[in-house]
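Input record, target 12 of the design panel.
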């Protein structure tokens, strides 16, 4: 779950260990301490290299994008499941001239 934030922090040339640890601490506090429920909105401010309240900053992720992603993933899975032909890739045979079968065929055994 932390792959995306870590990658974003690294790409922003910031200290990924420190920022991701702070983000995890905020999110853990929001889940365990009742008085800190608002910490669930904490996200990364990569311009300043710190954590901030994304809801207060106006950075929201619309539900529509998640719904569309789930619909497209479902359609892709259904399409894959509808394929009823087995696709095989045949590799060209590389016969070994010294194999047992060739030796028997040529009368060397």
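The sequence produced for target 12 reads:
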């Amino acid at each position: 779950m932390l792959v995306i934030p870590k990658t974003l922090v690294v790409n922003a040339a910031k200290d990924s260990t420190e920022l991701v640890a702070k983000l995890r601490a905020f999110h853990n506090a929001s889940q365990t301490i009742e008085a800190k429920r608002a910490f669930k909105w904490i996200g990364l401010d990569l311009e300043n290299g710190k954590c901030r309240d994304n809801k207060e900053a106006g950075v929201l992720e619309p539900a529509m994008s998640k719904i569309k992603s789930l619909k497209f993933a479902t359609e892709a899975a259904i399409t894959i499941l509808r394929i009823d032909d087995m696709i095989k890739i045949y590799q060209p045979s590389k016969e070994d001239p010294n194999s047992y079968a060739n030796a028997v065929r040529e009368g060397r055994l």
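Helices lie at 3-11, 16-32, 54-57, 63-82, 100-105.
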